[in-house]
């Protein structure tokens, strides 16, 4: 199960970097309720505003690539249908920490909630190089 | 179910404001895996580092109160044992957006993951008063 959830998490970041709107749409849940909190944004509730926000991000030529790493899976529900991934992100030199909540829909792990927020360099515990090293490990 | 999850969410913020370490400890899951991403912090994984971080926050005399509002429940797993609350927070005039993931343990909703991050004032869509009004509604 953990491998499948991590694969879904990687597919999310791959769709981000490939600016692939169709892949991003396919990654998000269809039956489960959907929400998203981009860094610095307010809560977006519902599939339509969430997908609209992603299309805006993917269609922005100035949007830098994202590097994700250090993913850990929290397997939650006893029925094995819900999991939370916490991971690190690096966008244009800015370290972030993220929550990705997945639900199983028709035997496929789908993203139903994403939050990402900046990590203060003071909290990284050292210079940016250390955050980069951690993400790469 | 939604009312019970919202009550657990309110108990979390009440423990925060009352600086009640025992209540905060009781709110977090014991069987489910636990994680936490405080604003500006890296990912904390595991009950021990998460509770240690909360005790540090609650024992800090300079820690301001938190106002939480606009909570919405995403009911996730088919067995009804997992739910995500997204909400707004206001700490010392700083607007934040938060994710709180709850699991049902022995018929009680327990927090297993929290992430909170700052909302840029530009994204609030107006002056801070608007964020305050939204939180109060």
Quaternary organisation of the protein chains: homodimer
Class computed from helices, strands and strand pairing of chain A:
alpha+beta
Topology-level CATH name of chain A:
Nuclear Transport Factor 2, Chain: A
| First-residue to last-residue Cα separation of chain A | 22 Å
Give the averaged pLDDT of chain A, no decimals.
Answer: 89
The domain count of chain A comes to: 1
Number of DSSP helical runs of chain A: 5
Shape of chain A: globular
Description:
Two copies of one chain form a homodimer. The first copy, chain A, is α+β, with helices and mostly antiparallel strands and 137 residues long. Chain A has one domain (2-136): Nuclear Transport Factor 2, Chain: A, CATH 3.10.450. Helices cover 35% and strands 35% of the residues of chain A. Chain A is built from five helices and six strands. A six-stranded mixed beta sheet of chain A has the order 2-1-6-5-4-3. In chain A, a hairpin with a 6-residue loop joins strand 3 (66-75) and strand 4 (82-91). In chain A, helix 1 runs antiparallel to helix 2 (21-27). The longest helix of chain A is centred in the N-terminal third of the chain and has 16 residues, at 2-17. The two termini of chain A are 22 Å apart. Mean pLDDT of chain A is 89; it is low at 123-137. The interface between A and B is large, with 42 and 42 residues.
């Amino acid at each position: 199960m953990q491998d499948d959830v991590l694969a879904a998490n990687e597919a999310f970041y791959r769709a981000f970097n490939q600016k692939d709107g169709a892949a991003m749409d396919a990654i998000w849940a269809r039956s489960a309720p959907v929400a998203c909190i981009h860094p610095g944004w307010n809560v977006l509730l519902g599939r339509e505003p969430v997908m609209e926000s992603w299309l805006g991000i993917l269609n922005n030529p100035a949007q830098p690539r994202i590097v994700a790493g250090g993913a850990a899976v929290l397997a939650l529900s006893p029925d094995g249908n819900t999991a939370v991934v916490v991971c690190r992100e690096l966008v244009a030199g800015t370290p972030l920490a993220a929550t990705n909540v997945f639900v199983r829909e028709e035997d496929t792990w789908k993203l139903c909630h994403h939050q990402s927020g900046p990590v203060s360099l003071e909290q990284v515990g050292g210079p940016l190089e250390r955050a980069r090293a951690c993400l790469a490990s």
